[in-house]
Amino acid sequence: WGWLVGLLVVGVLSAILPFPKAASLVVIFGAAVAKALLVAANYMHLRFEPGLIYAIAISPIVLFVVLTLALVPDIVFGR
After folding, report:
1. What is the average pLDDT value for the chain, to the nearest integer?
2. Positive or negative CA dihedral for 62, 74, 20, 18?
3. How would DSSP label each residue in 24-54?
4. Count of structural domains, the chain
5. Relative to the CA of 79, which of 48, 52, 59, 72 has its CA 20 to 30 Å away?
6. What confidence score (pLDDT) does residue 54 get?
7. Residue 75's CB: how many other CB atoms inside 10 A?
8. What is the domain range of residue 11?
9. Which residues fall within 8 angstroms of residue 73, CB to CB, at 6 or more apart?
10. Is the pLDDT of residue 43 over 70?
11. pLDDT score of 41
């Protein structure tokens, strides 16, 4: 629980402090991925499930990363 709050604070601070937008974006999305993995591992009890259920749970995370990376050129180049 403490790690989730800490990652939330990191994301908020990276948006508030005067960092470049690209660096803030990387920090915020990195914290979001880390929080998603923490929730999946601890609160969904995926550590104790068989491999197939783990693969099913990982597929939305992979989709999230792919879709996020697809948006990066639009965000960076301001289209």
Report:
1. 85
2. negative
3. HHHHHHHHHHHHHHHHHHHTS-GGGS-HHHH
4. 1
5. 59
6. 73
7. 12
8. 2-77
9. 79
10. yes
11. 78
